[in-house]
Amino acid sequence: MATSTTTPPRVSILFLAYNQEQLVRRAAQSCLAQDFEPLEIVLSDDASTDNTFAELQAVAAQYRGPHKVIVRRSEKNVGIGEHYNQLVKVASGDLLVTAAGDDWSEPHRVRRIVEAWDANGRRADLIASHVRDLDHDGNLHEVIRVDDLGAYKGVDDWAHKRPYIIGAGHAFTRRMMERFGPMDPGIAYEDQIMVFRAIVSGGAITVDEALVDYRRGGTSRLPVFESIAQMRTWNDRQSARVLAEREQLLADARLAGCEEPVYKLMEAPMRRERYLHDLRHADTHGERWKIFQAAPQLPTWWRLRKLLHASFPGATVKVKQGLSALHRRQHW
Question: 150: which of 88, 113, 233, 293 lies 20 to 30 Å off by Cα?
Answer without folding.
Answer: 88
